[in-house]
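Dear colleagues,

As part of the handover before I leave the project, I'm documenting each prediction I ran so the next person doesn't have to rerun anything. This entry is a single chain, and its sequence is reproduced below.
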Amino acid sequence: MRVLVTGATSLLGSFTANTLRNHGHDVVTLQRSRSELVGVTEYLGSITDRAVVEQAMAGVDGVIHLAAKVDPVGDWSDFASVNVDGTTIVHAVAAEAGVSRFVYVSSPSVAHDGSSISGEGAAPADPEHAHGHYSVSKAIAERHVLAASSAALPVVAIRPHLVIGPGDTQLIGRILDRAQAGRMPLIGSGLALVDTTWVDNAADALVAALHSLPATAGRALVVSNGEPRTVHELIERITTACGVAWSPRSVPARAAVAGGAAVESLWGKTNRDGEPPMTAFGAEQLSTAHWFDQRATCAALDWEPRVSLAEGWRQLAAANRPS
């Protein structure tokens, strides 16, 4: 197939493009800046620009839509423009172009109201109760594309949970930056169990989802390694593999959530650059259990994780070993 990958400069986007090529597909990418990918046809621009989306979509058989605004803070209008309006444009253009399958890359946070999730499946996206602009905007977009799934253009939503791997700037990068600055506390006990997804496994799952259509049309599926670990262990494994000293101090969960909300408000009022040291959403994620039953996902996608967390930690240590 000729497959369009949006957001291909992200860690997961680049791995997905390469995995598609390894499966023999012709890959087209659309993102704001040039990537280092080899053997793909690149289009540069925003998914909110219908003209460039139409150019990239020409002759495409399948779409894996990853592009999104993922920042922890920002104006709602920016999240709505990219995550909601941009997704609507990509899906509409795909339908008009005769694309035959569409994978929407979502997030488990679209169905997370802040309470613990322990061994559950993919609950329906719930923008009314999701927390944070990112989660709400992704929930709205997921609802839209799944409701629009049809025999002509079947859609499946895949929710990879906390994708990590060498080069990850979202979770691993933030943990390392804060640990080095002495600002990486344990929220609560640090014993909440959390799922992660090694990037190779997430990319495999997205390609498997593309192949699974139309059988999986209209469904939302959470993807993870299926190896929940405590927050304390995850942070310790990441910092140790990367050679960063970490001396945790404990902050009560309620205080961290309230403090994160206050810092977010201050950032918004003062238009500060960069990321705040903590957000309410971040404090929730670090103090609340969220791990998922993978049996339905594995069966639906005919997929299983091939890189264990133990192997992942070895890869991360090797990538950070002085040359």
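Residues 15 and 274 are 27 Å apart (CA to CA). The chain has a mean pLDDT of 91.

All the best with the project,
I.
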